[in-house]
Automatic annotation (TrEMBL):
<dbReference type="GO" id="GO:1990904">
    <property type="term" value="C:ribonucleoprotein complex"/>
</dbReference>
<keyword id="KW-0694">RNA-binding</keyword>
<keyword id="KW-0699">rRNA-binding</keyword>
<dbReference type="InterPro" id="IPR009027">
    <property type="entry name" value="Ribosomal_bL9/RNase_H1_N"/>
</dbReference>
<dbReference type="GO" id="GO:0003735">
    <property type="term" value="F:structural constituent of ribosome"/>
</dbReference>
<keyword id="KW-0689">Ribosomal protein</keyword>
<dbReference type="InterPro" id="IPR020069">
    <property type="entry name" value="Ribosomal_bL9_C"/>
</dbReference>
<keyword id="KW-0934">Plastid</keyword>
<dbReference type="InterPro" id="IPR000244">
    <property type="entry name" value="Ribosomal_bL9"/>
</dbReference>
<protein>
    <recommendedName>
        <fullName>50S ribosomal protein L9, chloroplastic</fullName>
    </recommendedName>
</protein>
<dbReference type="InterPro" id="IPR020070">
    <property type="entry name" value="Ribosomal_bL9_N"/>
</dbReference>
<keyword id="KW-0687">Ribonucleoprotein</keyword>
<dbReference type="InterPro" id="IPR036791">
    <property type="entry name" value="Ribosomal_bL9_C_sf"/>
</dbReference>
<dbReference type="InterPro" id="IPR020594">
    <property type="entry name" value="Ribosomal_bL9_bac/chp"/>
</dbReference>
<dbReference type="Pfam" id="PF03948">
    <property type="entry name" value="Ribosomal_L9_C"/>
</dbReference>
<feature type="domain" description="Ribosomal protein L9">
    <location>
        <begin position="18"/>
        <end position="45"/>
    </location>
</feature>
<dbReference type="GO" id="GO:0019843">
    <property type="term" value="F:rRNA binding"/>
</dbReference>
Length: 155
């Protein structure tokens, strides 16, 4: 007895199966009971395969252009020497409050004219409790990470 599988195209990302637009083979019961009712996949026809192929080419082109923009923004960010933040300090050199992602994001937007939008979830901050220099990583996209220097000085 032969095991029957049906080709489907995923309309959304499904964990352990694949990303949107992927052509996969699955068993009919899985399609009937899970993928189709939740609108996670459609049964692959030749016209659907052609449509998704065109969409994938367009999205790949957009992704390449976005990556190029991210690389130019990375160069802009890394060409600046350092960003400075001034904080009130106590007698032992520890500053009051904390440096937030929003403060750093506002500082970056103020000093650098970026062609993409940044949000605070893209910033990775080290623990900053004392005055000094810190390196902050900005995840512009999956493979492009910019590193900037932040210097915290007393007011």
């Amino acid at each position: 007895m032969r095991k029957k599988t049906i080709k489907v195209i995923l309309t959304k990302d499904v964990q352990k199966l694949g990303k949107q637009g992927t052509l996969i083979k699955v068993k009919p019961g899985y399609i009937r009971n899970y993928l189709v009712p939740l609108k996670l996949a459609e049964i692959a026809t030749t016209s659907l395969i052609n449509q998704f192929a065109l969409k994938q080419k367009e999205s790949e082109i957009k992704q390449i252009q976005f990556t190029k923009k991210c690389i130019t923004n990375k160069e802009l960010l890394e060409n600046l020497e350092k960003f400075t933040i001034r904080k009130k300090i106590s007698e032992n050199g520890v500053f009051f409050g904390k440096v937030t992602k929003k403060q750093i994001l506002d500082l970056i937007i103020e000093k650098v004219d970026l062609t993409i939008d940044l949000n605070k979830n893209q910033l990775e901050l080290p623990e900053m409790k004392q005055l000094g220099n810190y390196i902050i990583e900005i995840n512009l996209t999956t493979n492009v990470i910019a590193k900037i220097n932040i210097e915290i000085l007393p007011e």
